[in-house]
Amino acid sequence: MKTYTYTEKKDTRSGFGAGLTELGRTNPNVVALCADLIGSLKMNQFIEENPERFFQIGIAEANMMSIAAGLTIGGKIPFTGTFANFSTGRVYDQIRQSIAYSDKNVKICASHAGLTLGEDGATHQILEDIGLMKMLPGMVVINTCDYNQTKAATIAIADYEGPVYLRFGRPAVPVFTPEDQVFEIGKAIQLQEGSDVTIVATGHLVWEALEAAKVLHEQGISAEVINIHTIKPLDDKAILDSVAKTGCIVTAEEHNHLGGLGESVARVLALHHPTPQEFVATNDTFGESGTPAQLMEKYGLNSDSIVEKALKVINRK
Amino acid sequence: MSNKNLHDLTTQVRRDILRMVHKVNSGHPGGSLGCTEFLVTLYTNIMNRKEGFDMDGIDEDLFFLSNGHISPVFYSVLAHSGYFPVKELNTFRLLNSRLQGHPTTHEGLPGVRIASGSLGQGLSVAIGAAQAKKLNNDSNLIYSLLGDGELQEGQNWEAIMYASAKKVDNLIATIDLNGKQIDGATDDVLPMGSIKGKFEAFDWTVIEIENGNDIEAILEGMAMAKAATGKGKPVCVLLKTMMGNGVDFMMHTHAWHGKAPNDDQLENALNQNPETLGDY
């Protein structure tokens, strides 16, 4: 069993900010837009170094999305920054018509996704954004797990031609993936090799899945852990290869079980290899105010829940 | 293009519009006919256009249609401007056509740079394209067209506020002031007060074209609009048009906003607009 450790906790949004800063230095076509949340999105350094390539839109997300679409005409690569709620639900039609249907090279970068936004409560804690975005034809959907992976993904999506939804979060979480990683869109990463159960996790739940695998190991259960940072296009092969060995699967995400990663995995399994599956996700509910840790515990989005679901799904084999 | 040729092309575009919507018994002839003189003049005499089509449109003026439902006039003018064969107008709204009910880039139709139809987004897109031109040190202009009813969409006012605040002065946004929308007169559906006053309050330069169906007036007004660019403010053209212009029974009513003529009505309408350049 591989050992994963961390020396520090950092927020994934800072990984986005660092990636954007690097792009500012290396890619003259990258431009950034923000709807009055520069500090929250960690865009300050990019703005300081490239003031002419930054567009402060004000609190007007619909305008921001359509301006981003327009900026692509002329060869720019726009990165929009605001909270996940305002990056998706609030501007769905702008994204649908002006970005996705128009096939524009816009990178929609969404922070404060999910329950871990915390105390601001349900108005801001979107748990439906993965579903909204993955349903749009041609949209790539990425949910990164730590600072390093978010930075690498931010840099990688600039080289991909087409619309991308990049989802990350607010709280400081363990930094456990390599600093020098190359991010490959659509390529799942096996973190633990196992034979009894597959755990496929995305975003903040990846670290929780590694913690769960340790607990399961102590109980004599061998868990395979896969970091599925790209929800669309989904790495079908990685999932199918793994369940061929383990015969059961747990999906884990900070999102509603309707419309999220779990449903995408279930579709692949139903088509190619029907397999018992359990879902670690919110149960068709809104969130509420609280600390991130309290919320993840109350809504069953932590390592304890993953262990519980793993034991349950193994019994269904 | 000479005024005689402009009149001939305008008449032919009118015929195209009528025949396109008649054939598929759907589409939006009213607003299309009202904007025929404007779009013909814009593409032939006002815009600085390059041969051929590439999406980025570097070193040329670009146009964005926000009220995408007037696609018949847009398609006809694009075809007559050389972006695709005029005979392709025959495929309007048919299965597997590049000429979708509302304009889109999705099928790769040359001349179209953004999908439109869901209203209120085109001005923001035009602003983005205008800001890209500035970043590229490209001194060409961005033109856009919006319906007056479309101004009821809130996103426009985000865009109008932004464009003046950010001094997007390489943009000429034209409002088709025909005073009508699907459910009736704009003053009955949702009175908007003084649109001129609103744009001026948002610190735009406003040019009025009192007769937006008169080619001379359009040429004069758009020359003024062009001269007003580059002075730190976005430019708005209020183009007063007659919905259904050129077909007597389609004028002075909102009834033909989104309705196609039947066989007899088509014949009547075409008789009022005799063939000039040849039907597709």
Care to describe what's here?
The complex is a heterodimer of chains A (317) and B (280). Chain A has 317 residues and is an alpha/beta fold. Chain A folds into two domains: 165 residues, Rossmann fold; 127 residues, Rossmann fold, CATH 3.40.50.920. Helix content of chain A is 40%, strand content 21%. Chain A has a seven-stranded mixed sheet with strand order 3-2-4-5-7-6-12, sandwiched between helices. In chain A, helix 9 links the parallel strand 10 and strand 11. In chain A, helix 1 packs parallel to helix 8 and helix 9 packs across helix 13. Chain A starts with 8 loop residues before the first strand and ends with a helix. The model of chain A has no long low-confidence stretch (mean pLDDT 98). With 280 residues, chain B is α/β, with parallel strands linked by helices. Chain B has a single domain, classed as Thiamin diphosphate (ThDP)-binding fold, Pyr/PP domains (Rossmann fold), CATH 3.40.50.970. Chain B is 39% helix and 11% strand. Chain B is built from ten helices and seven strands. In chain B, the strands form two sheets. Chain B has a five-stranded parallel sheet, with helices on both faces. In chain B, strand 6, helix 9 and strand 7 form a beta-alpha-beta unit. In chain B, helix 1 runs antiparallel to helix 10 and helix 3 runs parallel beside helix 4. The relative contact order of chain B is 0.18. The mean pLDDT of chain B is 97. The chains are: A alpha/beta (317), B alpha/beta (280).
Give the class of chain A from helix and strand content and strand pairing. Answer: alpha/beta
CATH class of the largest domain in chain A: Alpha Beta
Strand content bin of chain B: 5-15%
Q: What is the approximate shape of chain B?
A: globular
CATH topology-level fold name of chain B: Rossmann fold
Fraction in beta strands of chain A: 15-25%
Top CATH class of chain B:
Alpha Beta
Number of helices of chain A: 13
Number of helices of chain B: 10
Total E-strand runs of chain B = 7
Biggest β-sheet: strands ordered side by side in the sheet of chain A: 3-2-4-5-7-6-12
Terminal-residue CA separation of chain B: 21 Å
Q: Assign the CATH topology of the largest domain in chain A.
A: Rossmann fold
Which chain pair has the greatest contact?
A-B, 31 and 39 residues
Q: What multimeric state do the chains show?
A: heterodimer
| SSE string of chain B, helices as H and strands as E | HHHEHHEHEEEHHEHEH
